Amino acid sequence: MKAARWHGVKDIRVEDITEPKPGKGEVKVKVAWTGICGSDLHEYLAGPIFVPVDDDHPLSHDKAPITMGHEYCGTVAELGEGVTDISVGDRVAIEPIFACGECAACLEGKYNLCDSLGFVGLSGGHGGFATHSVVPARMVHKMPQALSMEQGALVEPAAVALHAVRLSKIKAGDKAAVFGAGPIGLLVVESLRVAGASEIHVVEPSDVRRKKALDLGATSAVDPTATDAVAEVREATGGVHVAFEVTGVPQVLPQCIDATRHEGQVLVVSIWEQEASFQPNTVVLKERQLQGTIAYRNVYPAVMALMTQGYFSADQLVTKRIPLDEIVAKGFEALAAEKSHVKILVEAPD
Questions:
Q1: Total number of domains constituting the chain
Q2: Which of 48, 157, 258, 282 is the most interior residue, by most CB within 10 Å?
Q3: Angle at alpha carbon of residue 332, lines to 71 and 304, rounded to 5°
Q4: Could you tell me if 76 and 141 lie in one domain?
């Protein structure tokens, strides 16, 4: 079967590999659509970050080259021994987290904080940029009939955003800022609407993405290349209760801090390619909080329920659809060159 595999920086190859078979407790999925994530782009441009290179990942038991793709959905094609709660033909979204189940975080139910955390399609396993994928049955979530397959590919990134907002201190009526209106930033905007934020101010240099943020319910969309974005947000709000950092750009972190009010909170959602610095007194003197968030836990059912109500719409968020054979030129290279794209979906080959 065809699969897009990471071999190194700027070296992703569409190759023919052996079609996987499900083992005990596993499910084989005929992939439908897979989204290209910002984490995938980081691996392409500056990896390895999550990709294991020298040693096998402790849970996937894989190392590079690995089949990429973790934002995906498909149809159950085959069941491994002992799988009884899912059926062949079911349409499913994949929750691609590898967790050990034994460390302190896992034992507390916080499996996204696992000491050996990994992701199918980043840390090994049978990723979604392929014809078929095989995953443990626990990663498979049956999709409501009302959702399209394209919506299924957005469950994973929407889960990232919804988990971040749930983890934050935001309350109904509070004011928020979102720095970065890429796919996750835009999904954070929608999640903030779900949470009842009274004002959502977005900071984003791309004109296309600013307009999209407004379409999705942002109160304002500020171009940081044309104005002092922090001053503008503070003038409008007096300082937001929570600022979400969704850029991974080092100079943006202190801007997020400065945009919050006293006792404000900064939620760092990005995965970073390099270090970022800030003046600690900006946190100390206003008793602000700095909080990180990674992935999601126990949130897929809520995401899909919200999707049935019209949130996280593929019609609003998907800007391009491409075949697997064109994933490098029309996918990764396009995202690196053009900041106007929101979400690019890759269609799996037959």
A1: 2
A2: 157
A3: 20
A4: yes
Nearest to 90 by CA among 69, 74, 67, 68: 74
Three-state SS for 162? helix
Residue at 75 is within a domain: yes
Closest CA to 161 of 295, 35, 50: 295
Asked if 87 and 211 sit in the same domain, the reply is no
Cβ atoms 317, 342 nearer than 8 A: yes
d(CA 42, CA 27): 29
Say how far apart CA 139 and CA 120 lie, in whole Å: 10
Query: What tokens were used for 60?
Result: 């996937």
For 82-148, give the secondary structure using H, E and C. Answer: CCCCCCCCCEEEECCEECCCCCHHHHCCCHHHCCCCEECCCCCCECCCECEEEEEHHHEEECCCCCC
Q: Which residues of 290-329 are buried (b: 16+ CB within 10 A; e: fewer)?
A: eeebbbbbebbebbbebbeeebbebebbbbbebebeebbe
Q: What pLDDT score does 140 carry?
A: 98
**DSSP of 205-219:** S-HHHHHHHHHTT-S
For residue 185, the SS3 value is helix
Domain assignment of residue 287, yes or no: yes
- pLDDT tens digits, residue range 224-258? 999 999 999 999 999 999 999 999 999 999 999 99
HSE-CB of 263 using CA atoms within 13 angstroms = 3
Q: pLDDT category, 273, cuts 50, 70, 90?
A: confident
Instruction: Enter the tokens of residue 231.
Output: 């001053």
Domain check: are 34 and 141 in the same one?
yes
Residue range of the domain that includes 21: 2-154+312-347
Instruction: Kindly report the pTM of this predicted structure.
Output: 0.96
Helix (H) or strand (E) segment spanning residue 254: helix 252-259
Q: φ, ψ for residue 74 (rounded to 5)? A: 180, -160
